[in-house]
């Protein structure tokens, strides 16, 4: 039992780290020498590294909001898990933890979908960057973690 | 002391006439407008002299990226002369009140090419020394959204909903607990009363002894 709880806790922390990196790193789209979205457009030309703020369109702001909300909800669910670990009655389920974790996964999914659909087609060999991939990896992990919390019961 | 006061007052009297010869012109700093809309560019001035009958207003326009300005409006001798050949022909109207030192103009049906700097120069004879003031016009196709407005709105709404749901949940629990608590107190009281009544009603029957036959 202790081992299961430890494993679930480690998974939760890994998901939180993935979400934070995906939100904070400005590398959702990469081109030859530049990386952009969600926050900055940075490029290296001729030895200089220049960054400017990314465009203020509504969909980018929506993706920013959804990613920040998913980080917040994952963090709240971690706190709820630690709280319920010590305060839950025996045989009770980790209800609040599961709700927050599933909401976090829904937010990541919405953010990633909006970014995929609304990304402008520049045509100059722009690929998806590592932050985008991390967001898509974090979504199923977060969902599975939430479902584990629904199934998990506190025994003694 | 008296000589000091006299000297300062003479100095002040010497300075003030210099100031009263300068006219101060006020326009906005920057104006934003949408394509196709109208905009009023205001211009007013401050002068120590009374508004004279020979007051003049003139507006000049310098497009963005160009070094030449073109004159588009002039008011003099009580009559307003609007642009009838330049970029603003049929789109310019004088809406000011020179008697009240207001020399504002109205630009109608703005286009994207109207981006530029508009300079207002006013003269109130004999008060003619002054600096013209400029207002920059920016014409947008669509009103741009500032960075972070939508982000903050979405985050605020979701967190607000979360707080609201938590508050309502705890409020419901608190209210239901209070009602349940009061119910059990009255039930408990009734039970106690019935119990005591029954005790009073039930009296043990008196013991009678029957002698053995």
UniProtKB/TrEMBL annotation, chain A:
Keywords: Membrane, Signal, Transmembrane, Transmembrane helix
Transmembrane regions: 62-83, 95-118, 130-152
Topology within the bilayer: Multi-pass membrane protein
Subcellular location: Membrane
PROSITE patterns tied to this protein: PMP22_1
Pfam families: PMP22_Claudin (PF00822)
Broad class of where this protein is predominantly found: membrane
Origin superkingdom: Eukaryota
InterPro entries: PMP-22/EMP/MP20-like, PMP22/EMP/MP20/Claudin, PMP22_EMP_MP20
Gene Ontology, cellular component aspect: plasma membrane
Secretion signal, residue range per the UniProt entry: 1-27
Entry's family note: Belongs to the PMP-22/EMP/MP20 family.
Protein name: Peripheral myelin protein 22a
Organism expressing this protein natively: Haplochromis burtoni (Burton's mouthbrooder)
UniProtKB/TrEMBL annotation, chain B:
Main location: membrane
The keyword Lipid metabolism appears for this protein: no
GO cellular component, one term: myelin sheath
Ranges annotated as spanning the membrane: 145-171
First and last residue of the signal peptide: 1-22
Entry-linked Pfam families: V-set
Subcellular compartments: Membrane
Keywords per UniProt: Disulfide bond, Glycoprotein, Immunoglobulin domain, Membrane, Signal, Transmembrane, Transmembrane helix
InterPro entries per UniProt: Ig-like_dom, Ig-like_dom_sf, Ig-like_fold, Ig_sub, Ig_V-set, Myelin_P0-rel
UniProt keyword Signal, yes or no: yes
BP GO terms, sorted: myelination
Ig-like domain: residues covered: 17-136
Stored Gene3D superfamilies: Immunoglobulins (2.60.40.10)
Membrane topology value: Single-pass type I membrane protein
Family affiliation: Belongs to the myelin P0 protein family.
Protein name: Myelin protein zero
Lineage per the UniProt record: Eukaryota, Metazoa, Chordata, Craniata, Vertebrata
